[in-house]
Amino acid sequence: MTAERLNIQALCETRKKIRANGGRITFADFMEVVLYHPEAGYYTGGRAVIGPQGDYFTSPGASPLFGRLLARQFLRFREELGHPPGFAVVELGPHRGQLRRDVLAEAPDLDYRLVEVGDALPSGLVGCVFSNEFWDALPVHRVKVAGGHWQEIYVREEGEGFADALGPLSDPRLEEYLSDLPVAWMEGYETTVNLQAQEWMGRLGLSLERGFVLNIDYGFERAEYFSPQRPKGTLRCYHRHTLNDEYYARPGEQDLTAHVDFTSLIDTGRKAGLEPVLFTDQGRYLVGIGLELFREISERTAGQLSRERQAIHQLIHPSLMGNAFKVLIQKEG
Ligand SMILES: C[S@@+](CC[C@H](N)C(=O)[O-])C[C@H]1O[C@@H](n2cnc3c(N)ncnc32)[C@H](O)[C@@H]1O
């Protein structure tokens, strides 16, 4: 068995924050520290490794084909906008920039910019804001039906680690969001609310003058998101390619993520001037933009066990990434 690394700084920073806040912090604040503290955070401290040696896979790591396909989409967006001067693609949450390399290998003349934690969004943007698995990585609030009404699950210290603590909702926007949901709640039902996603949609609406927002992530529309069959919500942790629900284990050493409520992205996008033009699953979407390329690969590699064939299967098959991942395109202007 390999020994687990302990991130003492993440532990200390979380404790410090809890004490400074009178004994408890929201789960979103906890995620902010363990994922995004400048030195101790899982992402910002350089601990996140995506791929076979790391904690989980994403589509850019599955194959350079993903970037090749997206390059075609970006070129189509440029064409649709009439080749405007200054057309740029801005990728949110690119991690180490693998996808940018793959896109530029296919379309080297694209102005392709990266926005990681702490970088500012450009203003007056004409082009496309793109992201793959960005929304699911934003800090979320945890809420629970207890005593017949919604309460928030905070984080408190317990022994050497941390534990849940119930309290009133910390932000009036939570109340507003929860009162909108068309569901009869059962006692004990838990879920997450991504207020930062709402804020980001507002920012994108301001940043984008003309063009598209292309979001790829795992998630559901609202009716499915808040299904009674998911009474504990979708919050989960990834550590060395295994899933767990030990949210307080390995602070700063494991990923924490929640599925995306696409209905909320669509609604808040609309308020920011972004009209949805496409919502589908990744499998259908990639077949739509890549059919000719898939045909060419299929003919060229017929009868072989090629990497390209495996990658196509991985990206589009409904039981792999094809159905769990959704694609939302919104248009500004
Ligand atoms: C799940 S990873 C996905 C990485 C990459 N897009 C991929 O598909 O392999 C989420 C990424 O979003 C970034 N991220 C989270 N919050 C962010 C923020 N506020 N601004 C920019 N990037 C952010 C993280 O640092 C991380 O690189």
CATH architecture label name: 3-Layer(aba) Sandwich
Gross geometry:
globular
CA-based gyration radius: 21 Å
Helicity range = 25-40%
Could you say which structural class the secondary elements and strand pairing correspond to? alpha/beta
N-to-C span = 56 Å
The molecules bound to the chains, other than polymers, are: S-adenosylmethionine
Number of domains: 1
Low-confidence stretches: none
How is the main sheet built?
7 strands, mixed
Mean pLDDT: 94
Annotation, overall tally of beta strands? 15
Strand content: 25-35%
Task: Give the CATH class.
Answer: Alpha Beta
Count of DSSP-assigned helices: 12
Looking at the structure, the CATH topology is: Rossmann fold
What are the secondary-structure elements, in order, as H or E?
HEHHHEHEEEEEHEHEHEEEEHEHHHE
Description:
This protein is an alpha/beta fold and 333 residues long. The chain has a single domain, classed as Rossmann fold. The protein is built from twelve helices and 15 strands. It has helices at residues 8-20, 27-36, 59-62, 65-80, 98-106, 172-179, 195-207, 222-225, 262-271, 282-300, 307-316, 318-322, and strands at 25-26, 88-92, 111-115, 125-132, 141-146, 149-158, 161-167, 190-193, 208-220, 236-239, 242-244, 255-257, 260-261, 275-281, 325-332. Strands 2, 3, 4, 9, 13, 14 and 15 form a seven-stranded mixed beta sheet that branches. Strand 10 (236-239) and strand 11 (242-244) form a beta hairpin. The N and C termini lie far apart (56 Å). Bound molecules: S-adenosylmethionine. The site of S-adenosylmethionine has 16 residues, from loops.
